[in-house]
């Protein structure tokens, strides 16, 4: 069942997951993750929402915008970097302070291809959880699946 949500966008980041098998890595680019602080099903909360590439191209998400819509809770939180996905009925209000220029790490997130071309740097969970990294367009939460036995690729950790 879809939940109703509304609030302020506090972060926009790429949304992807990684599959590792010994020295091989594969990234699946899923779109964008937006952290919303506001009301989720009538309760004050903060959560991550998953959006596709087309939605970002249409709305040009950035921190400081007010947003609302509906979404589903993710089926398996171990393999998703967001709390909710399959977002629909999205409405976006303009930035609350359009006269002020946001810092370069909080503007409109670049296209997924730019993230893919730049590559990724791993941060410790402690470093990422700082306010600066968790609100930066270049930061990203990334679930990692690891194939433990090369001969049994369906067994993942």
What is the secondary structure topology, with strand pairs?
Layout: E1 3-21, E2 24-40, E3 43-51, H1 53-59, E4 66-73, E5 84-92, H2 112-118, H3 125-128, H4 131-134, E6 144-146
Parallel strand pairs: 1-6
Antiparallel strand pairs: 1-2, 1-4, 2-3, 4-5
Key terms:
six-stranded mixed beta sheet, 4 helices, 41% strand
* Amount of beta strand: 35-45%
Number of helices: 4
Average pLDDT across residues?
A: 81
Number of DSSP E strands: 6
Which consecutive residue ranges, at least 5 long each, have pLDDT under 50?
none
Task: Write down the secondary-structure element order.
Answer: EEEHEEHHHE
Report on the biggest sheet.
6 strands, mixed
Rounded to the nearest angstrom, the distance between the terminal CA atoms is: 29 Å
Helical fraction equals: 10-25%
Query: Given the C-alpha coordinates, what overall shape results?
Result: globular
Cα-atom radius of gyration:
16 Å
Query: Which structural class matches the secondary elements?
Result: mainly beta
Describe the structure.
- The protein has helices at 53-59, 112-118, 125-128, 131-134, and strands at residues 3-21, 24-40, 43-51, 66-73, 84-92, 144-146.
- The protein has 157 residues and is mainly beta.
- Strands 1, 2, 3, 4, 5 and 6 form a 6-stranded mixed sheet that branches.
- The longest helix is centred in the middle third of the chain and has 7 residues, at 53-59.
- The mean pLDDT is 81.
- The chain is globular.
């Amino acid at each position: 069942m879809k939940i109703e949500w509304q609030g302020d966008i506090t972060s926009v980041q790429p949304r992807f997951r990684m599959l590792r098998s010994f020295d091989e890595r594969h990234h699946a680019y899923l779109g964008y993750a937006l952290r919303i602080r506001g009301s989720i099903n009538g309760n004050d909360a903060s959560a991550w929402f998953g959006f596709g590439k087309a939605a970002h191209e249409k709305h040009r998400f950035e921190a400081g915008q007010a947003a609302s819509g509906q979404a589903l809770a993710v089926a398996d939180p171990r393999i998703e970097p967001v709390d909710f996905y399959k977002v629909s009925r999205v409405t976006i209000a303009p930035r609350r302070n359009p006269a002020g220029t946001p810092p370069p790490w909080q503007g409109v997130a670049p296209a997924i291809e730019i993230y893919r071309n730049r590559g990724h740097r791993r941060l410790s969970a402690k470093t990422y959880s700082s306010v600066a990294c968790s609100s930066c367009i270049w930061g990203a939460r990334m679930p990692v699946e690891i194939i433990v036995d090369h001969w049994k690729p369906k067994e993942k950790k």
